């Protein structure tokens, strides 16, 4: 039943059942940031182009600015906040920090989520794999070289193997 602010929505965010009220046209990004106070996903272009709002839905990267909250019901949503203790995310965060793979930091959460999805699917990516997987995430500060190197460093740390194949 509709309330004054929209319709009730039941979301599974970071393994926790969450209730919110969202308009039928309300985005997952708005619900995450404004209702659930999960602010790692950023509002960038609001058109799904920049990748700043990237989250995982059922283990796959998705743009939270293009996903309607109502359509995210009964799906497993993971944000950067929910991956804090994950060894792959910890390796990525350490590599980003030690390699200077961020400057202003605005794109970093989306980059980390995309890199995480890549390494979970392909723990030994080539440089081309990394470039391809991160191609949907825009950064205006770093020039990407340090970001790509950080993903490689994380993959190496996790596998103990050589640099890009």
The N- to C-terminal Cα distance equals 55 Å
By DSSP, the count of extended strands is 5
- Quickly give the CATH architecture of the largest domain: Roll
Write down the Rg: 16 Å
Which class of the largest domain in CATH terms? Answer: Alpha Beta
The total tally of domains equals 2
Provide a count of the helices. Answer: 5
Largest sheet: 5 strands, mixed
- Order of neighbouring strands in the sheet with most strands: 2-1-5-3-4
Order of helices and strands: EEHEEEHHHH
Low-confidence residue ranges? none
Strand residue content: 15-25%
Global geometry: elongated
| Average pLDDT over all residues | 93
- Derived from helix and strand composition plus strand pairing, the structural class reads alpha+beta
Supply the CATH superfamily name of the largest domain.
Answer: Beta-grasp domain
| CATH fold field value of the largest domain | Ubiquitin-like (UB roll)
Helical amount among residues, as a percent range? 25-40%
């Amino acid at each position: 039943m509709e309330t004054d602010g929209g319709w009730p929505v039941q979301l599974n965010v970071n393994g926790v059942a969450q209730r919110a009220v969202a308009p039928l046209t309300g985005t997952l990004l708005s619900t995450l940031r404004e209702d659930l106070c999960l602010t790692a996903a950023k509002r960038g272009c609001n058109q799904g182009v920049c990748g700043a709002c990237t989250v995982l839905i059922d283990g796959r990267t998705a743009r939270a600015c293009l996903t309607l909250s109502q359509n995210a019901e009964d799906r497993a949503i993971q944000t950067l906040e929910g991956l804090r203790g994950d060894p792959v995310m910890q390796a990525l965060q350490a590599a980003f920090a030690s390699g200077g793979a961020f400057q202003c930091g605005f794109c970093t959460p989306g980059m980390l989520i995309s890199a995480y999805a890549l390494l979970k699917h392909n723990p030994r990516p080539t440089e081309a794999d990394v470039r391809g997987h991160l191609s949907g995430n825009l950064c205006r500060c770093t020039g990407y070289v340090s970001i790509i190197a950080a993903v490689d460093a994380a993959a190496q740390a996790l596998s103990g193997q050589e640099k890009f194949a």
